[in-house]
């Protein structure tokens, strides 16, 4: 079964009289365990696409199937539960809760999914991600790279089969970005985690099995030769 199937997606934002067509007929299929990089200019529709895949926003038209389930057909409650069980999302700006520690942020994600033994599981996850010593710090006391890692731990808290990351490495220095991608690449190859990453970083995109370019709300799959022509 496909990890993800998008068919003819449209997303039209309406603000008063102004309509913005952010996606116009976007289609793609992703198999379990694939690592897909999505690139494209600012305003091309990358975040819109990721938010729809993540069930955070609904398409104006088209179909979104995740692990064989049509998430647009679910009730809001069903979609929330489905999302917690199957999908992890790391946003462009981290969405950690400022008054909770790193550990509590990860535990909350587990608790919301009805998991017991959250504390020890969250400690293990933070240790794996290299944040054992920072577990009791609040986001405001952490560096940008550390906050991103906590956000990844939150996204992985319920062992999703699909991880979505929106310009994860955008604000990180190269060494930290590399470490972050090593971590995700390891989960992808060792645990068959399906990865869809929006990035404008060429070295991040080069790690992916597939590269999808988005322009004016349409997707094209770029081949290696098309990529080298780009440079
Ligand atoms: N909530 C919104 N309301 C209205 N327009 C939006 C909204 N979100 C995004 N857009 C518009 O949709 C287009 C695609 O945006 P986005 O998906 O954020 O692009 P990207 O992530 O590639 O920079 C842009 O023209 C943007 O201004
Ligand atoms: Mg964006």
Give a topology summary.
Layout: E1 4-15, E2 18-30, E3 35-39, H1 46-53, E4 61-66, E5 69-70, H2 76-86, E6 87-90, H3 102-112, H4 118-128, H5 144-156, E7 162-166, H6 174-191, E8 194-198, H7 202-206, E9 210-215, E10 218-222, H8 224-230
Parallel strand pairs: 3-8, 3-9, 6-7, 7-8
Antiparallel strand pairs: 1-2, 1-4, 4-5, 9-10
Magnesium ion is lined by residues 46-47, 92, 166.
What does the model show?
The protein has 231 residues and is an alpha/beta fold. It is 36% helix and 27% strand. The chain has eight helices and ten strands. The strands form two sheets. A six-stranded mixed sheet has the order 6-7-8-3-9-10, with helices on both faces. Strand 9 (210-215) and strand 10 (218-222) form a beta hairpin. Helix 3 packs parallel to helix 5. Residues 225-231 have low confidence and may be disordered. Magnesium ion binds next to helix 1.
Q: pLDDT average, as an integer?
A: 90
- Small molecules (ligands, ions, cofactors) in the structure: adenosine-5'-diphosphate, magnesium ion
Order of helices and strands: EEEHEEHEHHHEHEHEEH
CATH superfamily: P-loop containing nucleotide triphosphate hydrolases
The portion of residues assigned to helices is: 25-40%
And the CATH topology? Rossmann fold
Question: How many whole angstroms does the radius of gyration measure?
Answer: 18 Å
Shape: globular
Q: Number of folding domains?
A: 1
Count of discrete alpha- or pi-helical segments spanning 4 or more residues: 8
Features:
six-stranded mixed β-sheet; four-stranded antiparallel β-sheet; 10 strands; 36% helix; globular; disordered C terminus; binds adenosine-5'-diphosphate
